[in-house]
Amino acid sequence: MKKGFYYSAIVMLSLTLMSTQCSSDDPAPFDNSQEIAEIVSTAESGTWRITNFNDSGQDETSDFNGYNFSFNSDGSLVATNGTNTVSGTWSVTDDSNSSDDSSSNDDIDFNIFFPVPETNDFEDLNDDWDIVSISNTRIELIDVSGGNGGTDVLTFQKN
Questions:
Q1: 58: nearest Cα among 155, 151, 140
Q2: Torsion-angle region of residue 149: left (phi > 0), alpha (psi -120 to 50) or beta?
Q3: I need a labelling partner for 148 at 20 to 30 A (CA). Which of 4, 9, 14, 65 fits?
């Protein structure tokens, strides 16, 4: 009987020691917060104009000629051409539900929303855009539609 008790105690002790020695093979989640802060700071650092808007193969850049875009720190987005002003919201968020575990801009969304009717040109900008590249003077965004498979490209150039 004592032999069984000691055997059980040794097995339990061994299992306890093994469980504390094992490490997880899962990588730590990637923290995009610093990169998001840099993107936000860049967008907020002046006014921008659209130099390319391609909606599923159709160049619609001219729809936004003369408009200057301001990405404000309170999350508001204002587009004005001196006569007309269109207000919306913007944000930069971590899209961690992506199947890509890399530390690239693919996991970061540049969100634009203008509360306008579907017939308004600004409605075409409403999306959670993926960032292609960003610099102090240029923001390049892309969106691949899940529905029709079309690709939209949006480029802002700093004024």
A1: 151
A2: left
A3: 65
